[in-house]
Amino acid sequence: MPRARTNDSEKLRRLEVLARVDRVFNSSLEPERVLNLILREAVHVMHATSGSVALIDPHTQLLEIAVAIGLNKKARRLKLPIGRGVTGWVAKTGKPLRVSDVTVDPRYVSVRRGVHSELAVPLIVPQTRDRLIGVLNVDSTRRDAFRAADEELLVALANHAAQIIHNSWLYAAVAQKATQLEALFGVAQSIISSLDVEEILRRVAREACRLMDSKLSSLMLLNAAGDRLELRACHGASADYTNRPPLSVDNSLLGVVVRRCKTIQVHNVQEHDQFRHTELARKEGLVSLLSVPMISGDKAIGALNVYSAATYRYSDQDTKLLAGLANLAAIAIDNARLHRKAVEVEEQLRQNERLSALGLLAAEIAHEIRNPLTVIKMLFLSLDLKFPADDPRDRDIEVISEKMEQLNHIVDRVLRFAHSAEPTFELVDINDLIADVLLLARHALAHQNVVLKTNFAHNLPKLRADRAQIEQVCLNLILNAAAAMPDGGRLIVATAFQRSSPSGKFTRTPPGSSGRVLLTFQDTGIGISPETQKNLFAPFLTTKARGTGLGLAIVHKIVESHGGAIEVESAPKKGTTFRILLPV
After folding, report:
1. Are residues 154 and 196 in the same domain?
2. In the predicted structure, residue 416 carries a pLDDT above the cut 70
3. Above 50 in pLDDT, residue 73?
4. What is the pLDDT of residues 480-511, one digit of tens each?
5. 206: in domain
6. Same domain? 229 vs 303
7. Which of 383, 402, 419 is the last residue of a domain?
8. Is the C-alpha dihedral spanning 105, 106, 108, 110 positive or negative?
9. Whether residue 513 has pLDDT greater than 60
């Protein structure tokens, strides 16, 4: 009968403890408050001297003390690997452990003086395939302080506590997701509403750092050639980091993200063989990396990266959040680029209107000149002036007649250009055409001390082109090159054939049934600034003191009317290269 009363008393004690825990849990979902209550009840009911709840950090896989009673600050900072100490043994095996005398147990790790007994039980969440999340532990300065009934009660309390903690974490996770989604929506509105690419990049880097609670974030985009990743924006970095050189797409860790459109995660970049800037990472205090591709259409245009200040294992939720931000950024960049193209097209239309107006004006002026010129010519011929061969006036008459014919020819060309929008096509040998133009320009090149070098491809197919217009294009580019080398230099004029492949790309191969002829004009002159290059083919833009600003605009118009394309590559003091591609 006394034994039955003892069992009833133990059951009653157990029910009272669990009831008190339930009451607090029903009134609060704050994990720290719940853990403190559980531990306080365990220490009180079992007459323990101290106690702790150690949880497993999912990123480091270390047991870290979340709450404690009776332990000093040094002991609270202790982190145990799974398997070490009594607590670590319980975390490894998932089984309770009651030690009557810790001084004779080799597994014990001392965290407080005077401890003789220890009881530790696992915190297991059954709904998640018996996932072990930590260990509930109590200590006593008395030997053999804990009984089997205490172990049974602590196990029941731990099971109850694990469920409470798990629910608290679920609630916190849902609240965090809601906060992140709200923040992401706000970021999306902010980013997409902007049409300034540089401002978009800065916002994305800043918000990535904030949302991911990172030490540093960076945004890298592919260059025009697609072989380098250039740092375009970052947040939390020093000047050394922002001034680092571009990364090779083929030979860098972040290049993998872009090449394969694949997210990568690095536990510690300071120790990773493929990370290019380990010293810089140490200097900046960067440890763990999460990098996601920025996808536009079906290809990556760059990578968004976040770095932590300590080892951290990014979760699936972290990856989804950063990927969502990266995709928003890619959409915003596409929108901004499309808007910029629309503005450029609109500006081009305005320029075309100006050219059209200029053509009409030129035609009107030419007509006004032709009428009096015709009268002058007729009157001059009617005079029938004849002088002896040795009379100087005979030569003057010849010069006057030649100049009138020249003026008439100029008027014809102006009228022809103003009224004829479409070129007159014929079969043209491009090598012969350029050779004729170089013959005309030889005096201008010699006067500028320009050394000419030609590299013509053999057996080029003939082009269907307007010979006069293509001559005008080549002559304009050659004379521009000479003007860009006032102190002399070198001009390379080359031709080549590019055959189209099944992929749609062009390769430099022998002539075939289809392809393009490439004309290259490369000088060693003063070069063109990036600002000027943006509007290089706009009418009335000139870099010459006496230029009209129409030369390159006309060149561009002629090349387009032939179904071709023109490219320019230049840098101040490094020369300029014009490439013209004409279809065969």
Report:
1. no
2. no
3. yes
4. 899 899 999 999 999 999 875 433 443 333 44
5. yes
6. yes
7. 419
8. positive
9. no
Phi-psi region of 449 (alpha: psi -120 to 50; beta: other; left: phi over 0): left
CB of 43 within 8 A of CB of 50? yes
| Distance set, CA 495 to CA 46, 78, 429 (Å) | 94, 74, 11
Do 309 and 197 fall within a single domain? yes
Same-domain check for residues 126 and 215? no
The amino acid at residue 410 is: I
**Residue written as tokens 């029938």?**
384
To the nearest 10°, report the CA torsion of 180, 183, 188, 193.
180
Report the C-alpha gap between 429 and 496 in whole angstroms: 13
Residue 337 in domain: no
Letter for the amino acid at 298? D
8 A C-beta contact, residue 138 and residue 117? no
Dist CA 414 CA 155 (whole Å): 100
Tokens representing 328 are 């928003």
Compute the distance between CA of residue 165 and CA of residue 30 in angstroms, rounded to an integer: 9
Domain limits at 241?
192-327
CATH of the domain at 14: 3.30.450.40
pLDDT at 191: 63
For residue 562, which of 422, 456, 382, 440 has the smallest C-alpha distance? 422
Q: How far, in Å, CA of 510 to CA of 504, rounded?
A: 17
pLDDT tier for residue 202 given thresholds of 50, 70 and 90 = confident
